[in-house]
Amino acid sequence: QVQLVESGGGLVQAGESLRLSCAASGIFFRVNNMGWYRQASGKQRELVATITRGGTTNYTDSVKGRFTISRDNAKNTVYLQMNSLKPEDTAVYYCNADVRRILGSDNYWGQGTQVTVSS
């Protein structure tokens, strides 16, 4: 069984920063692509940023220049540094990972962490 455990959410004011972390644990060979998604109340879940094992990143336009995704392959952990936060960034943030196991690759989600940005 593979688990993704997120941490780092909270309540901040507009313009402030937060750093999210997500660690993969369990029995597996390797964690491949990792990413962060978010879901605001009443809206669909959307991609925020992704990162390959080699470090290639991709961001949704609304966070470019403000958010930075990174990872530590030795720790099977992905991070999301969020700067200059805006009220519209308020959402539950979910970690996602493609994990290579014995019988093949599977996709996993974390439980989500709430980020609330007040104006």
Estimated structural class: mainly beta
Main sheet: strands, sense, barrel: 7 strands, mixed
State the separation between the terminal residues, measured CA to CA: 40 Å
Count the helices. How many? Answer: 0
The portion of residues forming beta strands comes to over 45%
The helix fraction, in percent, is under 10%
**Unreliable stretches:** none
Mean pLDDT: 97
Principal-axis shape equals elongated
Q: What is the number of E strands? A: 11
Output the radius of gyration: 14 Å
Order of helices and strands: EEEEEEEEEEE
Sum up the structure in keywords:
single chain, 119 residues, mainly beta, 61% strand
Q: How do the helices and strands line up, and which of them pair or pack?
A:
Layout: E1 2-7, E2 10-13, E3 18-26, E4 30-39, E5 46-51, E6 57-59, E7 67-72, E8 77-82, E9 91-101, E10 104-109, E11 113-118
Parallel strand pairs: 2-11
Antiparallel strand pairs: 1-3, 3-8, 4-5, 4-9, 5-6, 7-8, 9-10, 9-11
Notes on the protein architecture:
By secondary structure, the protein is mainly β. The protein has no helices and 11 strands. It has strands spanning 2-7, 10-13, 18-26, 30-39, 46-51, 57-59, 67-72, 77-82, 91-101, 104-109, 113-118. The termini are far apart. The model has no long low-confidence stretch (mean pLDDT 97).
Summarize, please:
The protein is an all-beta fold and about 120 residues long. It has no helices and 11 strands.
